[in-house]
């Protein structure tokens, strides 16, 4: 149960961080590395949740 909560929190953190960066500097200028650095997670972690930065953006508008 705790692990599932942590996974959900990490997913939300990545979504929120990505949105903030997209708004601040634009979608095209934002990289996955910038998202993960800002969120404080490894780049590999991003790809455990999303295949692309487009997918993270789409997930905000059509949640799991």
From TrEMBL:
One of its GO terms (molecular function) is DNA binding. Residues 31-50 bind DNA. Residues 8-64 form the HTH tetR-type domain. The keyword Protein transport does not apply. InterPro entries: DNA-bd_HTH_TetR-type_CS, Homeodomain-like_sf, HTH-type_Tx_Regulator, HTH_TetR. The keyword RNA-binding does not apply. Keywords: DNA-binding. It comes from Anoxybacillus gonensis. This is TetR/AcrR family transcriptional regulator.
